[in-house]
Amino acid sequence: MRFEFYQDYGYFIIIITNQAGIAKKMYTEKQYEDLTSWMLGEFKKKSINITKVFHCPHHPSYSDCSCRKPKPGMILKAEKEFNLNLSLCVLFGDKDSDIEAGRLAGIKKLIKV
Ligand SMILES: [Zn+2]
Predict the structure, then answer these.
(1) The domain 3-112 belongs to what CATH superfamily?
(2) How far is the CA of 113 from the centre of ligand 1 (A)?
(3) Is-above-0.90 flag for pTM?
């Protein structure tokens, strides 16, 4: 099932994204925020409501953090903020680091796309 159909079953859709380009100064936090706002607007046009986007602006070459996938920090932050039951969540990811972050956070249903 495609991720957007989950909202019809009452799931929140939350995006968890590594944005090391910020640490690498390839783009600014503001440019990232502007692109994210545009993206959320595009989803909204298709009636897809993204509850929140969590991003990690770090890269291990510049600083250490607990949020960059495959670390589970952003997922655990979402868990706290939205009182999620992670064992009932579904994670879609296109990279092994996405799947690993979900596994470390305790998400059982992990879908590599
Ligand atoms: Zn981080």
Answers:
(1) HAD superfamily/HAD-like (3.40.50.1000)
(2) 23
(3) yes
